[in-house]
């Protein structure tokens, strides 16, 4: 793959990773609830889900969705339901008070599971890879070039969310966030419910 094409791919993946949404809310919640380790684990497991979608894309996910539109509709509704569930959980956490180690905790195992599920249940990622990442795939592309696309998407996504978790868990930042976590939970819950409604209403723009 030419370096100019790879730089374009990296830029697209970076913009996709940095866009606000349920993935950022997830890493924030696990960092608040358990500190740096669960936040980092959530980011890395999310990157594995991103890598799976990237792998499916280079294998022809776009063609599969076009051929079987009901499959995409089923994935969309499942993703909307999961986003709504996460939103309700966040609102319930907001009512019980600040999220801190003494009340609501999170573990690396929970972070790993939810990080993967949020990635796999987010229709925005499916649309992102079909509409954008698939543009970098050609029928004659070598196996090495396809592997580079998958690794680029995974590393950029995981690197961004690890950076977010490490920054949020800084000794001066985390206490400030924990003191206001009940408001963060409420805002996150509203955001997730709004995203669920938007996904259920139709394809994301």
Folded structure, characterized:
By secondary structure, the protein is mainly α. The chain has one domain (3-201). It has 10 helices and no strands. The relative contact order is 0.23.
What proportion of the residues is helical, as a percent range?
over 70%
Estimated share of beta-strand residues = under 5%
Spans of at least 5 consecutive residues with low confidence:
95-103
Q: Indicate the structural class.
A: mainly alpha
Q: How far apart, in Å, are the first and last alpha carbons?
A: 29 Å
Average pLDDT = 75
Number of domains: 1
Short descriptors:
Threonine/homoserine/homoserine lactone efflux protein; mainly alpha; 205 residues; 0% strand; globular
What is the structure about, briefly put?
The chain is an all-alpha fold and about 200 residues long.
Write the layout of secondary structure elements.
Blueprint: H1 3-18, H2 22-34, H3 36-58, H4 61-67, H5 69-95, H6 108-120, H7 123-131, H8 143-168, H9 174-179, H10 181-201
Helix pairs in contact: 1-8, 2-3, 2-6, 2-8, 2-10, 3-6, 3-7, 3-8, 4-5, 5-10
């Amino acid at each position: 793959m030419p370096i100019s094409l790879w730089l374009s791919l990296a830029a697209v993946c970076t913009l996709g990773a940095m866009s606000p949404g349920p993935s950022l809310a997830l890493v924030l919640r696990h960092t608040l609830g358990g500190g740096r380790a669960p936040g980092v684990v959530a980011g890395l497991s999310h990157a594995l889900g991103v890598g799976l979608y990237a792998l499916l894309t280079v294998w022809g996910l776009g063609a599969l969705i076009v051929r079987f539109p009901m499959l995409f509709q089923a994935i969309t509704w499942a993703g909307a339901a999961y986003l709504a569930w996460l939103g309700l959980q966040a609102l319930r956490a907001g009512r019980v008070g600040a999220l801190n180690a003494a009340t609501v905790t999170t573990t690396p195992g929970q972070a790993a599971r939810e990080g993967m599920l949020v990635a796999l249940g987010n229709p925005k990622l499916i649309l992102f890879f079909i509409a954008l990442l698939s543009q970098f795939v050609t029928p004659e592309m070598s196996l090495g070039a396809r592997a580079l696309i998958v690794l680029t998407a995974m590393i950029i996504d995981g690197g961004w969310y690890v950076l977010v978790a490490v920054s949020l868990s800084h000794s001066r930042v985390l206490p400030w966030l924990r003191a206001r976590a009940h408001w963060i939970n409420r805002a996150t819950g509203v955001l997730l419910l709004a995203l669920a409604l938007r996904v259920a209403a139709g394809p994301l723009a």
